[in-house]
């Protein structure tokens, strides 16, 4: 995708709220015109009372008009602000939806390059930081030239000297604002970076609080969080210091300019060179002339804050998602899917090559084990099949039909995935098992749970399938979490199942139940297991040995043992490790 600069990115989002944004600007401009009318009415009242000896009854109509004017201006200002915040809300809603959809398209591999706290901070605080940019800064920038220009049109014909002073001093305010704001932009970016790092560190501490307590390290980490928080406080105060300094400079310039206009009008009134009515009218308009410029200075920091936040948003949106085709070719019989990977290559950013000219076959209705040392490329193969990443070279064949860019949404309907550490969300057991699937009947749900050997455990709970569980399966054992994940796979009833060694790190009883579930799940399905345990490897119909991103051996367990190759040495190491664990 074409990369935009941050200001261009912010401006392109205006189209999603153009109607309300223009309405806000129009209402603000109408309010500006009423300021001129208000100054004229007030000058008329004062001039009539002071120099024409008018009584209250003589100026009553002007006073009533002023009262109505105040009410009308208040209504216009209120409506303008409501419209501006509505515009900002539409932009925030669009960006949040766009960011969320893009994160889903990226998949867990690409999203994993960002810390979860940074992503959450961008989705929440980052988007919210754009509100003042669209609700305050943009309307003010539109009015900053329109209202002063309208005032000058009325002032120049009656007092060209005051008009000239206003015209010459007005550019000084934005000049100093931009001059001071240059340093603020850099500090705002640093502040957002510090906030992201602080959020990430704090989340890590919360997630690891149990471990910290066990190793008596909680006080040490509390001190570390205190140091990071204090660093963020100092960064925030630097931004505020410059913000207050710029506000002081802008107020000072505006005050001096108004004072110059007042002195010049005063001298000319004293020497009789000017009529009081016109002088007072010009003097009333002078503060209103600088008001939009002062507001621009105040809200200019909303732009700087938005730039800092938009940088993080763009960093995610500029990430390329895995390529997908618009359609998925007919793959034939749904429960008879044969998969071939031919000459696949892939490497991760700033890492060594994960797959290099990798080719393999995953036969239909067979149990295939993918075996290799850590970092050999096993997970990369699974991520390619799941559509989380796209291969840089090579082809994918489904039932002998080339489909390099799979349609992720359609393709994933044919795959059930059970990871080594399944994620359980806060909510009911029913919702967790039916995760991402259309509404299932209780009969289907109970059958899937029975096949996963978790039904009896659930029914023993006070609220059964409606029992609430904590995030990451808080309140459940590791074996129960794995069986819930297997229940998802049974409920989905997909023809392809990818398992990342679901029996790892479990007690013997949980391992036995899960192994029974896997045996049942493998019936009439294409099963790919990223295997770590000898019992799982031995039961496979076909074993693929991957090393440094290449397929080095393949065959059955007995065939590979006879070859006395890398598989044989891996099995010897695996047997020794399992014996050590049993002895412990």
Termini separation (Å)? 55 Å
Q: Approximately how much helix is present in the residues?
A: 55-70%
Largest sheet: 6 strands, mixed
- The CATH superfamily of the largest domain is ABC transporter type 1, transmembrane domain
Shape, per Cα inertia axes: elongated
CATH topology of the largest domain: ABC transporter transmembrane region fold
Low-confidence stretches: none
The chain-level structural class is alpha/beta
Write structural notes for this entry.
With 584 residues, the protein is of the alpha/beta class. The protein has 2 domains: 85-317, ABC transporter type 1, transmembrane domain (ABC transporter transmembrane region fold, Up-down Bundle), CATH 1.20.1560; 367-377 and 413-583, 3-Layer(aba) Sandwich (Rossmann fold). Helix content is 64%, strand content 10%. The protein is built from 20 helices and 12 strands. The protein has helices at residues 6-12, 18-51, 60-111, 116-128, 131-158, 160-169, 172-207, 209-214, 218-270, 276-317, 378-386, 408-411, 429-433, 442-451, 455-459, 478-492, 508-521, 534-538, 557-563, 566-583; strands at 339-347, 353-362, 367-371, 393-398, 401-402, 415-418, 427-428, 468-469, 496-499, 526-530, 542-547, 550-555. Strands 6-9-10-3-11-12 form a 6-stranded mixed beta sheet, with helices on both faces. A 4-stranded antiparallel beta sheet has the order 2-1-4-5, with no helix packed on it. Helix 16 packs parallel to helix 17. The protein is elongated and about 115 Å long. The model has no long low-confidence stretch (mean pLDDT 81).
């Amino acid at each position: 995708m074409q990369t935009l600069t941050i200001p261009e990115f912010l401006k392109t989002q205006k189209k999603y709220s153009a109607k309300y944004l223009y309405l806000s600007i129009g209402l603000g401009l109408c309010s500006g015109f009423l300021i001129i009318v208000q100054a004229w009415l007030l000058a008329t009242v004062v001039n009539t009372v002071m120099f024409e000896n008018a009584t209250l009854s003589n100026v009553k109509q002007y006073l009533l008009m002023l009262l109505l004017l105040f009410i009308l201006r208040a209504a216009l200002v209120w409506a303008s602000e409501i419209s501006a915040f509505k515009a900002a809300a539409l932009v925030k809603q669009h960006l949040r939806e766009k960011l969320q959809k893009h994160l889903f398209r990226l998949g867990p591999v690409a999203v994993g390059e960002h810390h979860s706290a940074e992503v959450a901070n961008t989705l929440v605080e980052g988007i919210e930081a754009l509100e003042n940019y669209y609700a305050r800064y943009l309307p003010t920038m539109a009015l900053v030239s329109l209202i002063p220009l309208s005032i000058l049109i009325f002032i120049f014909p009656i007092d060209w000297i005051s008009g000239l002073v206003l015209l010459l001093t007005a550019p000084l305010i934005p000049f100093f604002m931009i001059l001071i704001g240059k340093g603020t932009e850099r500090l705002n970016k640093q502040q957002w970076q510090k906030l992201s790092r602080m959020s990430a560190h704090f989340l890590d501490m919360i997630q690891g609080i149990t471990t910290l307590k066990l190793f008596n390290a909680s006080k040490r980490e509390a001190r570390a969080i205190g140091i990071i928080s204090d660093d963020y406080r100092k960064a925030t105060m630097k931004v505020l210091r410059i913000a207050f300094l710029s506000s002081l400079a802008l107020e000072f310039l505006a005050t001096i300019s108004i004072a110059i206009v007042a002195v010049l009008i005063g001298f000319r009134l004293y020497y009789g060179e000017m009529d009081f009515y016109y002088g007072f009218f010009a003097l009333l308009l002078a503060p209103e002339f600088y008001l939009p410029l002062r507001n621009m200075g105040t809200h200019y920091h909303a732009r700087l804050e938005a730039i800092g936040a938009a940088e993080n948003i763009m960093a995610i949106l500029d990430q390329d998602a895995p390529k997908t085709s618009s359609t998925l070719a007919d793959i034939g019989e749904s429960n008879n899917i044969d998969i071939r990977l031919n000459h696949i290559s892939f490497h991760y950013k700033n890492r060594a090559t994960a797959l290099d000219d990798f080719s393999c076959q995953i036969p239909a209705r067979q149990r295939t084990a993918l075996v290799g040392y850590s970092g050999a490329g096993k997970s990369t193969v699974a991520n390619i099949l799941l559509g989380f990443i796209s291969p840089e070279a090579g082809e994918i064949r489904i039932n002998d039909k080339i489909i390099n860019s799979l349609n992720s949404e359609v393709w994933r309907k044919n795959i059930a995935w059970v990871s080594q550490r399944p994620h359980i969300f806060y909510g009911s057991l029913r919702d967790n098992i039916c995760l991402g699937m259309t509404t299932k009947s209780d009969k289907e749900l109970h059958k899937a749970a029975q096949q996963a050997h978790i039904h009896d455990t659930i029914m023993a709970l006070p609220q059964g399938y409606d029992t609430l569980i904590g995030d990451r399966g808080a309140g459940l054992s590791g074996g129960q979490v794995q069986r819930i994940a297997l229940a998802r796979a049974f409920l989905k009833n997909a023809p392809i199942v990818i398992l990342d060694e679901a029996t790892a790190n479990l007690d013997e009883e949980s391992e036995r139940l899960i192994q029974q579930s896997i045996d049942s799940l493998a019936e009439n399905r294409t099963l790919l297991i990223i295997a770590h345990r000898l019992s799982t490897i031995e039961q496979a119909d076909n074993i693929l040995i991957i090393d440094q991103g290449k397929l080095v051996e393949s065959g059955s367990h007995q065939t590979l043992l006879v070859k006395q190759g890398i598989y044989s040495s891996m099995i010897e190491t695996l047997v020794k490790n399992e014996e050590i664990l049993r002895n412990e």
